[in-house]
């Protein structure tokens, strides 16, 4: 509970609510050298408690609903992109060029799931677009990891040199990350939030009636907004028309949402209308890339008083890597996690993309707490999170579960098999991990399955 307490207090929550949280522990889930299970449990617990708190506030309940965190359900949720089945088909995982490679002096991790990132990676290496894995491996083996990291970054691609924990600790970006709190929260602007109607105490949907503009991609941001959709929010995801989301990624993270395309450069009027009607905006693009659209917290607070702005990035908005793109696998490689989880001289990985998923639940928790606080003063809030900061917390800030004196709950494998849900959708028949966020009278599934990417209108209902 100490970890939940520290995160809850970082979110500005009332410590008196912590006894409302209970845990069903399964010690064999998300097993790793680092405390991944504890991280996952803590992030989901904080999110569920924030949801229950907002629900109690809006429903006029005398007591915050009880929160139950089941390690098995949490583990399934953290593996959602792997457990998903679409008409029986398993999702496509990492692309062939998204992997670790040997270099002349060590290892480098690349990410090339998206076609434009693949083109930039190959261009930085001086290779044609049809280059084979073997050809890429041969080129990388002749270069240093640091050289590859910088060349690919300069070309707009994604690659990081593998670092030990000590090497990362000596990096300037690590020092900048360590100076920041896990969640950077601030109050912004004058009071001018729209008043939301009460919600029903039965079938409690804490975020019902709230409009969330989702400008995120891949996993962390979409997991956060998927959670807000579960809780009743009207979530509208906007993507550039020329940059479709990977189909399986969309199927996993767009439960409960609407999906539209919009060119922000040429249709500013529609975008301004969406912002004017939103309660929350969540961004997950490279830091600074959306600033020209007025989406810095200070500019947003001035133009749209009462708006909650939440931002998630890979490395943070500060330091020498503050403007860089990144993904969970790259952050693991750079921060020493891949070395810690590796063996026999080869880098490893966490048992799930826990930095992404954990940060996503913390993002949702920060938004929910901001909305609760807004019901008192009508003022907007901002929240900033970074995968690298979550990584620092994982490696240096989380307590491991104590060793059990006797058999632990679920220690014989009882209840640890993923319990999956099924439903039909426009994408086909889906088998998927149900929500891990659970509290008394709360939702147990999303109101709608994911639809086809980009087929909704960019407007509020």
Write the layout of secondary structure elements.
Layout: H1 2-10, E1 21-24, H2 36-59, E2 67-70, H3 71-78, H4 80-83, E3 85-86, E4 100-102, E5 107-110, H5 115-124, H6 133-140, H7 145-154, E6 159-161, H8 165-169, H9 172-178, E7 184-188, E8 211-215, H10 220-230, E9 234-239, H11 247-253, E10 257-261, H12 268-277, E11 280-283, H13 297-303, E12 308-313, H14 328-334, H15 337-340, H16 354-377, E13 380-386, H17 387-396, E14 421-425, E15 428-432
Parallel strand pairs: 1-2, 8-9, 8-11, 9-10, 11-12, 12-13
Antiparallel strand pairs: 3-15, 4-5, 5-6, 7-13, 14-15
Helix pairs in contact: 1-2, 2-3, 2-16, 5-7, 10-16, 16-17
Radius of gyration in whole Å, from Cα? 21 Å
Q: Quote the average pLDDT.
A: 94
Beta-strand portion reads 5-15%
- Numbering strands along the chain, what is their spatial order in the largest sheet? 7-13-12-11-8-9-10
| Structural class category | alpha/beta
Query: Which outline best applies?
Result: globular
The stretches of 5 or more residues where confidence is low (pLDDT under 50) are 406-414
Helix content: 25-40%
Multimerization state:
single chain
Distance between the termini: 41 Å
Biggest sheet details = 7 strands, mixed
| Tally of alpha and pi helices | 17
Count the E strands: 15
In short:
The protein is an alpha/beta fold.
Overall description:
The chain has 461 residues and is of the alpha/beta class. It has 17 helices and 15 strands. The strands form four sheets. It has a seven-stranded mixed β-sheet, with helices on both faces. Strands 3-15-14 form a three-stranded antiparallel β-sheet. Helix 2 crosses helix 3. The protein is globular.
């Amino acid at each position: 509970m100490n970890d939940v307490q520290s995160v809850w207090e970082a979110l500005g929550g009332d410590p008196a609510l912590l006894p409302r949280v209970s845990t069903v522990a399964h010690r064999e889930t998300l097993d790793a050298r680092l405390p991944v299970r504890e991280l996952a449990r803590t992030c989901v617990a904080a999110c569920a408690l924030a949801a229950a708190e907002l629900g109690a506030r809006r429903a006029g309940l005398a007591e915050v609903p009880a929160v139950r965190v089941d390690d098995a359900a949490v583990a399934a949720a953290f593996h959602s992109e792997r457990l998903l089945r679409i008409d029986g088909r398993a999702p496509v995982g990492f692309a062939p060029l998204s992997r670790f490679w040997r270099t002349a002096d060590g290892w480098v991790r690349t990410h090339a799931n998206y076609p434009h990132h693949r083109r930039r990676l190959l261009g930085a290496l001086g290779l044609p677009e049809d280059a084979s894995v073997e050809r890429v491996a041969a080129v990388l083996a002749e270069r240093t990891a640091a050289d590859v990291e910088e060349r690919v970054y300069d070309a707009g691609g994604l690659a990081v040199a593998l670092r030990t924990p000590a090497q990362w600790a000596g990096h300037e970006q690590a020092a900048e990350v360590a100076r920041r709190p896990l969640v950077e929260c601030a109050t912004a602007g004058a009071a001018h939030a729209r008043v939301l109607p009460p919600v029903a105490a039965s079938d409690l949907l804490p975020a019902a009636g709230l409009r969330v503009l989702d400008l995120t991609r891949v996993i962390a941001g979409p997991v956060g907004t998927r959670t807000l959709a579960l809780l009743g929010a009207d979530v509208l995801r906007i993507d550039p028309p020329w940059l479709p989301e990977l189909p399986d990624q969309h199927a996993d993270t767009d439960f409960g949402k609407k999906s539209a395309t919009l060119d922000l450069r040429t249709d500013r009027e529609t975008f301004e209308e969406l912002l004017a009607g939103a309660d929350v905006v969540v961004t997950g693009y490279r830091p600074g890339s959306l600033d020209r659209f007025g989406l810095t917290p200070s500019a947003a607070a001035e133009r749209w008083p009462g708006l909650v702005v939440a931002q998630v990035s890979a490395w943070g908005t500060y330091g020498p890597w503050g403007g860089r793109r990144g993904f969970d696998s790259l952050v693991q490689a750079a921060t020493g996690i891949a070395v810690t989880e590796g063996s026999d001289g080869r880098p490893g990985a966490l048992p799930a993309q826990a930095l992404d998923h954990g940060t996503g639940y913390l993002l949702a928790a920060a938004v929910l707490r901001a909305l609760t606080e807004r019901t008192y003063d009508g003022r907007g809030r901002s929240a900033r999170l970074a995968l690298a900061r979550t990584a620092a917390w994982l490696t240096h800030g989380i307590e491991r579960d104590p060793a059990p004196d006797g058999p632990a709950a679920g220690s014989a494998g009882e209840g640890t098999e993923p319990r999956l849900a099924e439903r039909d959708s426009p994408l086909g028949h889906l088998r998927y991990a149900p929500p891990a966020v659970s509290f008394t009278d709360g939702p147990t599934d999303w109101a709608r399955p994911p639809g086809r990417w980009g087929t909704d209108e960019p407007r509020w209902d």
